[in-house]
Amino acid sequence: MGEIDRSSVDAHSYGGSLHVTDKSQLLGHASQLIIGASIDRGEVRYDASSEIGTVGSNFLVSGTGAIIAPTPTCTPSPSQRRTLITGYSSPIPSM
């Protein structure tokens, strides 16, 4: 008896930023004002499954089509996980 474990990962990330600079004089003095903002987001999906099989003479496992059944104390198979990560940066003026 053997087991075939399968897993896959699908990851995507994207983001953007915007920055504005103003070099106007302030009260008759040289001044520089910088304001910016950015956002980044990432998403990861993970899938996994296990299948019972038989071990052949060449030590390769042949699947039987029987997926291991979930129990009350473990995550059902096939399992799927999705993770979202979002990050922001707030505008911070610089003079």
Explain the overall architecture.
With 95 residues, the chain is mostly beta strands. The protein has one domain (2-70, 77-89). 0% of the residues lie in helices and 65% in strands. The chain contains no helices and four strands. The chain has strands at 2-22, 33-55, 61-67, 79-89. A hairpin with a 5-residue loop joins strand 2 (33-55) and strand 3 (61-67). The protein is rod-shaped, with a radius of gyration of 27 Å. 0% of the residues are buried.
**Main sheet makeup:** 4 strands, antiparallel
Tally of separate helices: 0
Q: How would you describe the shape?
A: rod-shaped
The count of β-strands is 4
- Our Rg estimate from Cα atoms comes to 27 Å
The parts where pLDDT drops under 50 for at least 5 residues are none
Helix share of residues?
Answer: under 10%
- Please provide the ordered H/E string of secondary-structure elements: EEEE
Number of domains: 1
Determine the N-to-C terminus distance. Answer: 70 Å
How much of the sequence is in beta strands?
over 45%
Broad structural category: mainly beta
Mean pLDDT score: 78
Question: What's the topology here?
Answer:
Blueprint: E1 2-22, E2 33-55, E3 61-67, E4 79-89
Antiparallel strand pairs: 1-2, 2-3, 2-4
Can I get a quick summary?
Helices cover 0% and strands 65% of the residues. It has strands spanning 2-22, 33-55, 61-67, 79-89. Strand 2 and strand 3 (61-67) form a beta hairpin.
